[in-house]
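Worked example
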Amino acid sequence: MGRYKEIDINKVRTYSLSQRSSKVNVEQDALPPRPEMSVNDLFKGLPKVLKAEDLKSIARKIREAMERNKPVLVMLGGHVIKTGCAPILIDLMEKGYITHLASNGAVAIHDTELALWGQTSEDVLEQLKDGSFGMVSETAGVLNKSASKAAREELGFGESLGISLSDIKPPFGQRSLLVNAHNISVPFTVHVGIGTDIVHQHPSADGASIGQASMKDFRIFAHTVSRLNNGGVVLNLGCAVIMPEVFLKALSVARNLGSPVTNLTTANFDMIQHYRPLINVVQRPVQDGGNGYSITGHHEIMIPLLAAAIYCL
């Protein structure tokens, strides 16, 4: 017999399973997919738990926002464009499910290159060796000229880029977010951090013009944020730093000027959950009313699934 005392569990109190409150039951089980099933049946067959329910809730909130003429503001990071999701976002825009696109500078660069040449995303590791990384002249020419045009004509950076690309009539313009947003008059705002984009490496980059154009876009963005109260939706798709920070500042401006901006829906979609999107998009904006969601997964899978849920549920 050992030297140490142990508790006597012979007198523990038990009770019947029928009396216990349980979090999971068989009614939440998934239905196995069938070869002939529709996309709607697929969503109905998802397990009625956790992120499957969250995804459906986000889709329903977007539909409700459209029906109530509330903004659906979609913030983007560059990887979303590089994973081929632009045509899905364009389709959602055309059908009224996205009412404002906002991005960092990387999105504008990749979207411009894909519109003009049908390709983007250089080999950074290889080209950094000889200093050729980011030195493509045509990309810098379009973006930096658009910034200067925006400053001269008092346009936002995104609007000026949309005009510039539309005037060029690029061969792949049908899959460009900037071109299509311009064509259907959906605001596309571009929020630039000076020195973060390859086009800032070129002699044509004018900091004053870039700053003025991006500041104009911040104010356009803040106007949309001011309209989110009671039913608006904000999605952050793959932007880890700039757009969550811009959103938080715009939200503060809107509330400072008298728009309460509560009872909204926010969601962060990304491959991993970073600090700023979780805090600045999912948590802080809805602490006084609304719902925040975080969905983890690859953009090339989750964005098509979200679109399908919007259309089918």
Notes: The beta strands are 72-76, 100-104, 188-191, 233-237, 264-270, 290-296. The chain has 13 helices and six strands. The mean pLDDT is 96. The longest strand covers residues 264-270.
